[in-house]
TrEMBL record, chain A:
<protein>
    <recommendedName>
        <fullName>Cytochrome c oxidase assembly protein COX11, mitochondrial</fullName>
    </recommendedName>
</protein>
<dbReference type="GO" id="GO:0005507">
    <property type="term" value="F:copper ion binding"/>
</dbReference>
<feature type="transmembrane region" description="Helical">
    <location>
        <begin position="63"/>
        <end position="82"/>
    </location>
</feature>
<dbReference type="InterPro" id="IPR023471">
    <property type="entry name" value="CtaG/Cox11_dom_sf"/>
</dbReference>
<feature type="region of interest" description="Disordered">
    <location>
        <begin position="32"/>
        <end position="56"/>
    </location>
</feature>
<dbReference type="InterPro" id="IPR007533">
    <property type="entry name" value="Cyt_c_oxidase_assmbl_CtaG"/>
</dbReference>
<comment type="function">
    <text>Exerts its effect at some terminal stage of cytochrome c oxidase synthesis, probably by being involved in the insertion of the copper B into subunit I.</text>
</comment>
<comment type="subunit">
    <text>Interacts with CNNM4/ACDP4. Interacts with RANBP2.</text>
</comment>
<keyword id="KW-1133">Transmembrane helix</keyword>
From TrEMBL, chain B:
<keyword id="KW-0963">Cytoplasm</keyword>
<dbReference type="GO" id="GO:0005758">
    <property type="term" value="C:mitochondrial intermembrane space"/>
</dbReference>
<protein>
    <recommendedName>
        <fullName>Cytochrome c oxidase assembly protein COX19</fullName>
    </recommendedName>
</protein>
<dbReference type="Pfam" id="PF06747">
    <property type="entry name" value="CHCH"/>
</dbReference>
<feature type="region of interest" description="Disordered">
    <location>
        <begin position="1"/>
        <end position="20"/>
    </location>
</feature>
<feature type="domain" description="CHCH">
    <location>
        <begin position="30"/>
        <end position="63"/>
    </location>
</feature>
<comment type="similarity">
    <text>Belongs to the COX19 family.</text>
</comment>
<feature type="compositionally biased region" description="Polar residues">
    <location>
        <begin position="1"/>
        <end position="12"/>
    </location>
</feature>
<dbReference type="GO" id="GO:0033617">
    <property type="term" value="P:mitochondrial respiratory chain complex IV assembly"/>
</dbReference>
Amino acid sequence: MLLPLLLRQAAACRAAPMRLLHRQAEHDLLRRRLPPRLHAQSRNRKSKSEQQQDEWSTRNKTVLTYIAAAGVGMIGLSYAAVPLYRLYCQASGLGGTAVAGHDVDQVETMTPVKERIIKITFNADRHASMQWNFKPQQTEIFVVPGETALAFYRAKNPTDKPIVGISTYNVVPFEAGQYFNKIQCFCFEEQRLNPHEEVDMPVFFYIDPEFDEDPRMARVDTITLSYTFFEAKEGQNLPLPGYSYN
Amino acid sequence: MSTAMNFGSKTFTPRPPEKGAFPLDHFGECKAFKEKFMKCLRDNSFDNSMCRLQSKDYLECRMDHQLMTKEPLAKLGFRDLMDPPPNQSDRDSKP
């Protein structure tokens, strides 16, 4: 907005000295006065307006440079925002994302917190069109944070044709989900059951010992682990929840 | 599941398991160990701490039958159950 205004002013300035010169010349001819003073004055005025011109044009250029730099900066910031936000979420644990620092070596060195007993209840679900029979083999199990635990589900294919299933899981309460670490399970990969086949599906997991130190978890005594099986079409891949964060 | 479009609320993001998925035990090779474990759980009112030996046995069975990648048991959290050299291993077969 300002730019055209500035340009118009600059143009006006350029035109002004010409008009001024004309007027001066007319004055001189009419009044036959050619005081050198006026010439000098007009020359001064010309150089002053030229100076103004120069000032304005440099100011224009500076403003343009600043605006261009700001534009490029904004574009760069929008590209940088993606990994920065991800880092921030990991560091602060906002939105339920997995807190960074879950490493496999922790399993080796963690010590169980024997005073805090947590009940894990199991739930098994399947999609409406999934024909497997799927149920947990124990309704609940009592664990302590820092101790690895094993649990079993059972799945049976009662039909006459092989069915491929794929499962996902859910942990309630949501905030406890970040402390629930599965070492190995049967989820996120296609599992094929032949006709009339029945298998045991284990889940090997542990609750992070830091669970005991989190004030938000102070009243949490029961965690529910729920698995849901869907039928998988051959060759279809469930996207692994690697980078998903919401 | 977590279909919420509300950014402030608590949502659940599933995480893949650390060591991947267990291959299915189609032939029931470790069924006996699993039964021992389940019996132990039922006898101890589902207290996991009492049945860790059985769960260790089950995982060892899986590893022996190529149903699980072989790993030192300490890495699976069984450091306290690590038995010393084989002269004491006959004690583990107690149900």
